[in-house]
Amino acid sequence: MTTPADVHDVRDPDQPGRLLAIERDALIPLLRARTEEDFALPVGACPGWSVRSVLAHCSAALTRVVENRFEEGVFSPESNDRDIAERDDWSNARVVDELERGMTEAGPVIAGAGGKLDGLALGEWVHAGDVRDAFGEPGAYGGAGLADALALLARITRERGHVPLHADLDDLDEPLRLGESGGERPPGRFIGDGPTLVRLYTGRPVDRAEFELVGVEAKDLNIFG
Question: What does the alpha-carbon distance between residue 209 and residue 160 come to, in Å, rounded to a whole number?
Answer without folding.
Answer: 27
